[in-house]
Amino acid sequence: MEYMGNADWWNKRFHERSLSLMIHDKKLEEDGSRFHSGGRVLDLACGDGRNSIYLAEQGYLVDAIDFSAEALSRLKYFADELKLQIETLLVDLTLEQPFDHMKEYDLIIINHYRLNKTCYRDLSSHMKERGVLWVNGFREVPIDNPRITDKDLLTEEDFEHLVNFTLDDKEMYDEGNHKMVRYIWRKQSV
Predict the structure, then answer these.
(1) Residue 180 neighbours by CB distance under 10 Å
(2) At what angle are helices 69-81 and 50-57 packed, to 10 degrees?
């Protein structure tokens, strides 16, 4: 799904930002004890890497994907400045089977992006046994951002194609005026 704009829109937006790293998502930090320590992480729709950087600093091996070349360039800059190794991949998540050549992961995070629900079947084949899928996003359209629409809202139906996962936790919470929802899914033994 296209979130707020296409790749050109995001490239322009990232190009116009000051060269400073945004703070990682606090909900991700709060949930950190629920993840395996260390291991390999995939950060989907990573933007310029605020969560990727945070996870790499926690000792994870991070692969970060986005469809904005400008965002990934910024992420590489921040990682180099902090002497962190993060593998970046330019991937359009709106294409069919965008995960074809991905590794297996202990943790996959999707923050503020609604992945096409048909992609979850393919994504689940890249998750290690007992691995965690962490998804965080909007549950209501925010009144202060007209670019976010109903098609950007997370619903439980989004996960109907997950294979061999159980829902460990769902939390609805407010972040300022934003109505958010966070899901933690765990892959089961086959």
Answers:
(1) 20
(2) 30
Angle between helices 69-81 and 7-16 in degrees, nearest 10: 40
Q: Which long-range contacts (CB under 8 A, 24 or more apart) does 77-85 make?
A: 77/19, 78/21, 78/48, 78/49, 78/53, 79/49, 79/52, 79/53, 82/53, 82/56, 82/57, 84/53, 84/56, 84/57, 85/56, 85/61
Spell out the per-residue pLDDT of the chain, length 190, in tens: 455 567 776 668 777 777 788 899 999 999 999 998 889 999 999 999 999 999 999 999 999 999 999 999 999 999 999 999 999 999 988 887 788 888 999 999 999 999 999 899 888 899 999 999 999 999 999 888 878 889 999 999 999 999 899 999 999 999 999 999 999 999 998 6
| pTM (2 d.p.) | 0.91
> Distance between CA 112 and CA 3 in Å, rounded?
8
